[in-house]
Amino acid sequence: MKLIKATEKDIPLIQDLAKRSWENAYADILSKEHMKYMLDTMYSEAEISEHLKNPDYHYYLVFDENLHSYDGFLGYENHYENQTTKLHRIYLVPESKGKGLGKKTLEFLNQKVKESGDNRIILNVNKYNSAQKFYESQGYNIYNEGVFDIGNGYVMDDYLMERRF
Fold first, then answer.
1. Which of 76, 89, 138, 149 is most buried by a 10 A CB count?
2. DSSP secondary structure letter of residue 144
3. Is the pLDDT of residue 97 over 90?
């Protein structure tokens, strides 16, 4: 596995990986309309392009060197808060699950966060997403919860998790 820094040319690939992973991860949690709204909003070309212009926001593509395929992506923002990196996005396509790629991707993130000088990672995870257990197995703890209005009558009902170094 290799993580490759994403650029503007990778936006269509990020959008495709997001759609493929979300259709699996959120099938039993979000309605098709809710999922489409979030994908269209959070993964629009303009939104991702804006992230890529921010020097503290980074996207990496998860590349399986054995299969020569892209299996997912990571999106995070250093210095989101004081000494804190926000893990905005980590998604793997369904066929790549169980290969240890998620764990390796988080280990990569841990290293990047330490290099940035931050000493904490925060993330939001849907309360009904089984990924919460994965994050806990990787040293993350729930520190709060929240319901966030994302427009169009939709909300995100999340646990707020953190990992400190």
1. 76
2. E
3. no
Characterize 88-99 residue by residue with b for buried, 16 or more Cβ atoms within 10 angstroms of its Cβ, and e for exposed.
bbbbbbeebbee
CA–CA separation, 162 and 151 (whole Å): 26
CA distances from 54 to 14, 47, 69, 79 (A): 17, 11, 27, 11
For the record, the structure tokens of 13 come out as 């690939």
Give the three-class secondary structure for 59: strand
Q: Which two tokens stand for residue 164?
A: 């400190």
pLDDT at residue 66 greater than cutoff 90: no
DSSP result, 108-119:
HHHHHHHHHT--
pTM of the complete model beyond 0.85: yes
Beta bridge partners of 45: none
The C-alpha atoms of residue 110 and residue 74 are separated, in whole angstroms, by 12
Token pair listed for 44: 């629009």
Distance CA 74, CA 43 (A): 13
